[in-house]
Amino acid sequence: MNTAHVTPLRAIWLLTRLRLQRMLNVGGARFAFKRKKNHEKSRPATAGKRRGMWLVSALVLAAMLFSFGNIAHQSVLNLHCGLDAITSCHGQDGMDAVAAQLTGTPFSDALLAGLSLQLCLLWLVSVLLPLGAGDLAKPDWDLEWLVTLPTSKTTLLWARVFERSVANPVGLIALLPSTTVIAWYGGYGWLAPLPALALSLLLLLAAAMLRTLVDTGLRLKLSPSSLGNLQALISIVGIVPMYIAMSFGMSRQGFAFGWAADMPAWSSWTPPGLVIQLLNRPSVALAATLLVQVAVLLWLGMLILRRQLRDGVVGSGQRASMRTAPKANAPAQPSSRWQIGTVIQRRELSLLKRDRNFFVQTLLLPLVILGSQVVFTGRLHDVHKLLESPALLVSTGFFLGTYTLMMSAFQTLNKEGGSLWMLYTFPVSVEQALKEKAQLWAVLSMVYPLILFGAALLFIPQWRWDIAGLMLLALAGIALYSVIAVALGVFASDPLATEVQAKMRPTYLYLYMLLTGLYIGALSAGSLVQRLVFLMLTVALALALWQKARDQIPYLLDPAASPPARVSASDGLMAAMLFFVAQVLILLLLKGKGSATLLHIALAFGAAGGLTYVLVRLLYWRSKTAGVPRILNGKQALRWGGIGAGLAAVCGIAYLFALQANGQLPAAPLLHTAGWSRDWLWLIGLTVLAAPLCEEFIFRGLIQGGLRRSLPAWQAITISAAIFAIVHPPASMLPVFVLGLCTGYAYQRSGSLLAPMLAHAGYNAAILLCQRFWIT
Amino acid sequence: MIAFEGLSKQYGSFEALKPLSLQVGKGEVFGFLGPNGAGKTTTIRMMMGILVPSAGRVLIDGLDCHRDGAAVKRKVGYLPDNPIFYDYLRGREILQFVAEMHGYPRAEAAQRTARLLREFSLDEAGDDFAVNYSLGMKKKLGLACALIHDPAVLILDEPINGLDPRASREVQERLLRIAAAGTTIFVSTHLLDMAEKLCSRVAIIHQGALAATGSLDDIRQQLASEGSLEELFLQLTEPAA
Known about the structure:
- The complex is a heterodimer.
- By secondary structure, chain A is mainly alpha-helical.
- Chain A is built from 32 helices and no strands.
- By secondary structure, chain B is an alpha/beta fold.
- Chain B has a six-stranded mixed beta sheet, sandwiched between helices. Chain B has a four-stranded antiparallel beta sheet with strand order 2-1-4-5, covered by helices on one side.
- Chains A and B meet through helix 15 of A and helix 2, strand 6 and helix 3 of B.
């Protein structure tokens, strides 16, 4: 037996270190700074799948800190201008002067009180958000275990409070930007983060005590299910102080400014107020007051905590409460006659009905966010603007829908969690189950937009087709994004992860948000054609992502293996994107400041095509991808190529004549210059050789071939032809679509890329010659 | 009924299961024995399409478990080693859901649910949320889920691990009854007395490789030993082997 005792301080240090180590391990698993070399025989844990995402995460963190710092800076200036009645607060120059004048001068009492209010709100955030984010309903991971260690309960409780104040990243992100900015105005210059960090930690100590009191008390008193519900409430309530605190930095109107003006003078003598005073004009007396106050608070908290835990650290039967409650309303037999949706959809609905957390996050949170934007920034009158600007209206509706999807459809796999295995035991494919969920959420997430749009249509004076069309476009977008969300959710979630934080890879969440942002951009700007083009691209993207996700499904519960590489439609989309971006960049490089000549265009086109082709082949070769399209394989390439060329050329020439008859034929002076100039040769080289080679590889080989894996031939041909058409100028979209259909058919029948290449070359040659010789 | 054809699985460079070839006949109760970490659960997960084989395949009633997953599952009932159920659903609702996923109309699903709950004496607990169940109750519920569609093949991963003596006895007796009705049972375990009582044939795997297969007598003959299954098992799974 070991007779040596651990001193309380050492115990506190050990426990705090353990928690920090655990946090690092959780983060480390995600960031993967270094990967341990595995010993020959040992099991290589589960290192196989994850890629180092640390760069993205670090960038996001930096962006967050920067924007929060900016808001904090704006808040100080806004409060200064509003509360101290500064008159020169307008324009960039005026604000700069105010900021310079404020630096190093002591804050007025009104400003101190206002900033105290803001810091107090942020402090609340640092208590509430961690409370709402952790899993209260789960048994505490350590207290039950820690009490078995040979230290006193008081030591353990102090350790708990200390580790929670140090390991509170959310709290730090909430407090640090604000305190740093205030320290900056206090004249600390570049040293500002140091006193800011020290004083923030002091506040976080109090926050940790409050949080521990709340969650210990709740755990002892409430059953797991009511805990879950309460937690949902807390996660909502936590957002409110955050928005109010942020509203100071956004505008000078919101009602929170009224509160700030009414703050009593004593508020600067509360801990947050003292922190601000200290940062603004340091003094020993102030520091001592602050320390005493925090110490008293901690001591009081500890008294309550010990009282809470006087009967032991485990609540009075977390199960017993469950056994008694649901008896009365237990639906012993399914009674209702009619049913909605499929079995899976009904289960999802009943989960939504019971899991308040889920309900709040999916259906309530979008409203709360939108509502707090409107209320706290004092822009209630903006509601009228919705009716004036159709683009803003449909964007808002689309946002509401896709936000719901982000919390629901995106989380489908995550929600299955540990019981994902059940889906694998049914005689229904997992893909089918996901599809049914996507359908369900597409419908549910349209509820708010439909209400919004319906109300708007009632309020506008007369029926407007353009607004109705936009609304339809937004609703179609929501349906498509439900597919995209489920597919991205498949990549984003890690059903094998045990840590809540590791279950979701945030990068895909950002990707989803980015994509919704793009669609909102397309909704609010651009012509009808551009919007339709974007809709088409979104359809293709949804299909491509779904295909990738489907490939992933058999490997979801596999700790190491990933699906073998196969050509997929998403490869084609990416290749197409690379092709066009490279083309634009190379053209910019070539032409410099002058205007682009045909030679430049031809060179850019050829180089971009060649680059894309080589890169794709290289990647496929490296990853040993299966199903790479072949040029010379297949049968009767010449025959099908010829037929395709003939059909497409007839349609194309007819279209040319139709345009000419209507007088809509775009002028093409080059085509009518006499003789066979050098430019002519370039044009022929470009259209008859380079274009068929690059474009057919991408659009037929990759996109159509990829789509063909999950769609019937005619759909794959039509969609790839449509994508092919929309990347061409509007005037030529129709004949190019027909060309896409013909070459697609030729590829489908022959199985060789040579056929569509020949068809494409033949068509281009025919159109070129026709324009040169017949049309004048 | 079940045919393993060179089935193998690698996790990175670690060989969890070396190529395994085995046949299990119709109506057999086949014990799949091995120490912890021998590859039992990996094998079973590949049978259920939860993991993708690195090589080879496993057929149930002539259907590839990876390729024809949905069709295989019409015939198979599965109990995982640690069944985790949906949060916020009661035992009865989970069972009802599983029955409906197997294509039974609502009324019949409810009827089957009620029958199985009664048979597993989960009548009362059926109205509690399943997350609150004890391990024994979870296993019973899992077994009920596996049996709800009267499968021709039962695949059980450590069915009585962690059960108290009474529950364990109940489960074993039930398995014997199911086997008597002609169901093929593939059961993994490291509890040897259960294997000795239940199984007509066993396979012992060790470090991912098949160490012995056959009836108990066959294995005794192979090893020229007269010991109990426990002695045979220890002999076959020595750390150095």
